[in-house]
User: Fold these one by one.
Assistant:
Number 1:
Amino acid sequence: MKRTITQIGIIYSPYAEKQDCPIQGAFAPESRGRVEVYPAFVKALATIDTFSHIILIYLFDRAGAVELSRPTFLDEEPHGVFASRHPCRPNGIGMSIVRLDSVQGCVLHVSEIDVLDRTPLIDIKPYVPKFDFRADASNGWTDNKDTVTKPPGRE
Amino acid sequence: MKRTITQIGIIYSPYAEKQDCPIQGAFAPESRGRVEVYPAFVKALATIDTFSHIILIYLFDRAGAVELSRPTFLDEEPHGVFASRHPCRPNGIGMSIVRLDSVQGCVLHVSEIDVLDRTPLIDIKPYVPKFDFRADASNGWTDNKDTVTKPPGRE
C-alpha cells in the first residue's frame, strides 16, 4: 500500500543547520519555535489549547540517503533505524513532543523543539500522559548513554 | 510538499472490526498482536530487542472521510482532530505505543495493541522514556473523561 502525504503546515525553529539542532527536545527546554498550520486546517485545532504538550509529526526533508543501520549521536555502534530516531529512515517521518506555550489562530507557539527550521508538518496529535506514559518502560540500548555532542558530518 | 509513503510491514491483531478494538493500548495490557516487517527492512530492526516498548506508525486504511472536528469516544463534544487521536484526520497517520514482548527475525510479538488487524505499517520508533516522558504534562480536555464505551456507528 502507498499513500501520498501532503503538508498541513510549517514548523519554524532557530535551527537552519543540522549541527545546531538539539538532539532531543526533552533536553532543550529553552528551545522555542512556532508551528503554522495552513488556514484550511484551523478547525482541526479546536480545543488543542487545553493540552500542555503536543506531538508533531513531520517529514525529514533534508535527511541524507536511507541506511537501515547506522550510528546515532549517542554512541559509535550501529543501530537499526527502527531502534533509533535517526532521520535517514524509510519514509522519513519524524516525531517530536513539544511544549505548547500558546495558540493564536493557526499559529502554535512551542518550546522544547528539536526540529529544523521550515520543516514540513504532516500531523499533530495531543500528548496525553494517560495514553502515552509507560511507567515500566526501559530505555533500551540508550540507557546510560549521555553523549550529546555531534561528531562532524554525522547526521 | 508531498511525499509518497510506502508500507514497510503489516500489523496483525485480534481486531477485524472497529468496534472490537481497544480505545487505547495503555488500557488493554492483555491485547496481543504481531508486527511483520518486510524482509527487505530486517537490518533496520537491529538492537530493537533492547527496548521494552516501541512506537508503531501506521496508516488508518479503513477510516471514514476526514472531518476536521468531531466527537471522540471520550465525550460528546466535538474536538479538532489535531486535539484528538481520531482516525479520520488529514493524512490518516496513526501512532500507538505497544509493549515489545519478543523479536523473531522480522516478526515482533507485541501487547497493549489497539490497532485493526492487517493495518499497513509505515515506521517503527523506539519508545524511550528519557526522550518521551513529560512529567508535568496535562491530559488537556481528556482529563477526568473515562468513557470507554463506543457509541454505535461512531468512529
Number 2:
Amino acid sequence: MENFVYQNRTKVIFGEKKYLEIIHYLNQNKINKILIIYGKNAIKKIGLYDEITNLFSENSIEFYELSGVQSNPILSKVHEGIELVKKNNVELILAIGGGSVIDTAKAVSIGALYDGDVWDFYERKEEINSKLPLYVILTLSATGSEVNGRSVITNTEKKLKWSVRSEILYPEISFIDPSLQYEVTGNQLIDSACDIISHVLEFYFDNTQNSLLMDEISEGIIRTVMISTEKLLENSKDYNYRSQFSWAASLALNEMLNCGKNGGDWSSHKIEHALSAYNDISHGKGLAIILPAWMKYVYKFNSQKFQRFAEKIFGITEKDELKSSLIGIQELQNWFKKIGQTIYLNEIEIKEEELKTIAKIAEKQLPYGNIKKLNFFDIIEILKLAYKN
Amino acid sequence: MENFVYQNRTKVIFGEKKYLEIIHYLNQNKINKILIIYGKNAIKKIGLYDEITNLFSENSIEFYELSGVQSNPILSKVHEGIELVKKNNVELILAIGGGSVIDTAKAVSIGALYDGDVWDFYERKEEINSKLPLYVILTLSATGSEVNGRSVITNTEKKLKWSVRSEILYPEISFIDPSLQYEVTGNQLIDSACDIISHVLEFYFDNTQNSLLMDEISEGIIRTVMISTEKLLENSKDYNYRSQFSWAASLALNEMLNCGKNGGDWSSHKIEHALSAYNDISHGKGLAIILPAWMKYVYKFNSQKFQRFAEKIFGITEKDELKSSLIGIQELQNWFKKIGQTIYLNEIEIKEEELKTIAKIAEKQLPYGNIKKLNFFDIIEILKLAYKN
C-alpha cells in the first residue's frame, strides 16, 4: 500500500429537507450576506429556488445571485461571480446545483480572496491558500464535487478545461437531499452514472498491485451504482435507490478511494476534458466513450486487475487474463449501451479527421498516464478505438 | 436510507515512519508541552519510545508521561493523566498505542478542561464541549479509536465499562504506520481481527433494509480483514497485509458504516463490556464469544440480512433464509476457531452460575438492541448460547 494523507473536512447532512437547517449554520457562523450560485431553471422548476430564497428573506439573510452556470462551467461566469462577491462584501458562497455549479462556486470562493486572475490557480501559477466559506445544496449527484477539493473550469478563449485540487477547496457543509433529484432522469441520469463509474475506475486501474481493501470498496460502489441506475430508470422517484446512488457518487470521489493508491490514472478524464472542451458534450457521455477505449488500449499493462474487474463486476470466470480483461471491458460497454448511453465517437457529431485536433488539445495537459504514460500518438490511438464501431 | 450527518475531521497520515512528521505539526500549532500516554513495555521494545522522546528532546518539546495503561483502560489512570495535565499546563495529548491508550487519552483530553469528575461524561451527566488537542501514533489496529469520537473506560469501583461518543473526541491527527505492528501476533492479532469484524457487523445487522451501499462496503471490509489476518498469521511482517488490515480497522469504525443506517445494534458490545468488566478478558475475545451467540438469538428478526451475510462472506447458496442464516453464523464461528480464537464461555474461566451476575451488569446499560430490543432474560439466553458447547 502506498503512503497517504487523508482528511475530509466536509460535513455531509443527508436526508429529505435537511437543507432547511442551513439557517442554523449561517446563524451559528454569523453569516448575513451570501452569494447563491446556480444553473438555469432546474432549481426553479422543482420549487427549491423559492423555498430557499424565501427562507433567507424570512431570516434576514441578504443574498446575491449568480445564475446560468452551464455544464462544463466557464471562466467568464467565475469572473462574474468574483465581481459580485467583491462588490457586495459577500461572506459565504452557496452552490445550489451539481458539479458544474459547485466547481464554479469553488473557483469564485478562491478568486474572491485573490487579486490576480483566478485562472492562475488552474494554470498552477499560484497556490491556493484561502477561500470564502462554501456551502452546497446538491441537486445532481455525479462528480463528487460536494465532498472533495477539486474544481474543473473551462477557459473558452483558450479552449482549455483544466482542474485544480486543494485541501482548502472542500466545502464546509454539503446538504444532500436525494429527493431533490427525482427529476434527474434519462440522459442526465445515465451520464451521471457513467461519470461516477469512471471516477471509481480511474482510481481502480492504476499500477499499484496491493490495494485489496480499496478494490473491494470500489467494486461495491460500482455494483451499487449499476443496480441503482437500473432501478431509477424504472422509477425515478425511488427514495432508497436515489439515496444509494447519491451517497455512492459522493464516496466515489471523496478521495477515500485514493487512500493507499498512487493517485489513480486519470487519462480518460484528461482526454475527455479535451473532447468536451472541443465539442461541449456532457462529461458523462464523453467518459462513456473514452473510458472503454482507454481500457482497451492499456489493459495489457495490468491485466491482473482488469481480470479482477471482469470477475467482480460481471462474474466473468474466464481464466486467461487477457481474454477475461477484454470480456470485462466489453461487458462495461454493453452495460453503458443497455442503459441507453452513447459509446462511440461516431454517434456524436465528430468526424474522423477531427481526432487529431482533439488529441492536440489533450496533449497540452501531458504528462499523464499511470498504467501507461501516454504521448500524443497514444492519445490518437485511444481516440481511434473510441471512434471505431 | 436513514438520514445522517457525517463528518470526520481526523487527518490520517499513513505510511512507514510518517509519525516523524509530528514535529512539523507541533511546530505549526505552536505546541511546546505535551503529555505522552502509553501502555506498558511494547513501545519501548520496538524502539518507538526512544525514537519519539529523543525527537522531542532534540526539538525542545517538553513532555510528561502517563504509562501503564492496560487493556480495558480504567478510570483511575485517566484521573492520573488529568492531574498531570492540570499541574503542568500541558497543551496537547499524544497517545502512542492502541484503543485502550487512545480511549484513555480522549478521556484525559476532556477531563483536563472540566472541573468535575470526567466520569460524569460517561454517565451522561455532562455534555462534551471541548478537549485538549489530541494526536495519535497507532501501534495496534483494532478499535478504530484513532479515527472516531468514541471512548470506552472501565470504572473498576463500580464494575462498569461505559462509553461516550462525541464529535469533539475525534483526534486531530492520527499517524498510522503499519510496520509498527509487526510484533502484533498470535492472540493479540486474532483478538483484533475479531474486534474489527464485530464492529462492522454491529452496524451491518440492524433493522434497516435499505442499505445496499453500506452492505457492500461492510462486506468488502470483512473479506479484507479475513484475508489479511490469515496472511499475517503466516507472516506477521507482510507490509501490504499489515496495511490492508490497519486501514480496514480504521474504516470499520470511522463512523462511515453508520451513514444511512440507524446506529447499528451494538448489543454484543454492551454484553461484552459487561463480560470484560467482570472477567477482564480482552474485548476481541469477548466479542468472538458473544457476537455469534447474539446472532443465533436474533437472526430470525432480520433473516434476509443474515442470509446475505452468509452468501457474500462465505459463499453460502442455501435458498432457505433461516437455514442459510444459521450456516453463515456457524461459518463465522468456524473461522474464529480456525484462526485460533476462543468461541465459548466454557473455554475461559466462567462458570454457568456466573452468567446471571454478568447479565446483571449488562442489564445496567439497558435499553439496547435494534434488531431485537433486549431485556434481562434475553441477555441470559444469549449468555447461555455463548456458554453451550
